[in-house]
Write a structure and sequence with these properties.
422 residues, alpha+beta, Adenine-n6-DNA-methyltransferase TaqI, Chain A, domain 2, 2 domains, 4-stranded antiparallel beta sheet, 32% helix, globular
Amino acid sequence: MELKKGYKQTEIGVIPEDWEVKEIGSIINYTKGFAFKSREYKNYGIRVIRVSDTLFDTIKKENAIYVDKNDSEKYKNWKLKKNDLIISTVGSKPPMYDSMVGKVIRITEENEGSLLNQNAVLIRSKDKLKENQGLLFYNLKTENYINHIELIFRGNANQASITLKDLFEYKLPIPPTQEEQTAIANALTDIDDLINALETKIEKKKNLKQGAMQELLKPKEGWVEKRLGEIGETYGGLTGKSKAHFGQGNAYYIPFMNILSNPIIDINNFEKVSVGEKEKQNKVIAGDLFFNTSSETPEEVGICSVIIEEVENLYLNSFCFGFRLKDNEVSGLYLSYFFRSKIGRELMTSLAQGATRYNLSKSLFNQLKITLPQSIEGQNRITNILFDMDKEIEGLEGELEKYRMMKDGMMKDLLTGRIRLI
């Protein structure tokens, strides 16, 4: 393929003729984290950032550890500044991003002045990049960088490590001027700011919804008590199926994660299964509720979802059971919201049985009593409020996904010089 005028082929791909290819090691200064002793830890003082405190992009606030603030001068070489980059040198293999070895975190104002613990390295760009860590940061968030980590890590999936020698051999494209470097970094930072603002807004909306659920679903005067076994019947998911039956066929089934992730079943997230005409399997109909039967923790047993639209030839996965209402004065959507509320989750958790794995007994489930508005109209007034909140959150999450896709495209175009801002 003929190269576009003004571009050249390099070992890392096509880039502008005036750009350079450099190894990380040639453009940064670095400091290895310090091996703090646990006996030095305090309940307050100067925070120490450990690898276990980090996620793929951020530093967690909970379970922080500190050292005496009077030791500030003693540890000045490991003090973090805003926009410093830290890279974990131990962790799990990609793509387990939050615990990944080689993940890169940019220090924000909130964590400025903290100290870096061992098993991580602090890097600061030098020379032409000295004023702008942003370009380096975004280059270390690309698919190419993650592929490099996959090539150099040692150990197994959950206990991986990298050497600085291998890490610093990673090559990246560098624009010729600080002006262009800064323009690229600023454009990507702007889209990141939009994404972060949306994520914060979504989190607030979700918290608002949880608060509304607590208030709206709390039993009130005039509400009635009903036993689940009296208002509906349970049924099982698919049986007698082997791996060969899935991924093809004339029917669909609801995957396990569709139930766990959504109070209302996502009808765009079904998978194919082969079901014979004479097979005795339980079909799903609109209004049915679904619960997962087991989990590693009691808090995750009996997560509920409801299907509100009719879908032909639809079945349930084998790891959940269905619940079909026979009482016309009970709303399935109301029950789904109820069992995802704090009150409902506490009830389900109380039914979980087991030691290393917890299960939900259908007989205990059928004996469970719940309190709800006497009329379906009263239930619908509550579900309408929560449904509208869900729709608003869904719209914001769709907007967030668009911005994330936009950022991915911008990174591919700007960091390779395919599109130039200067």
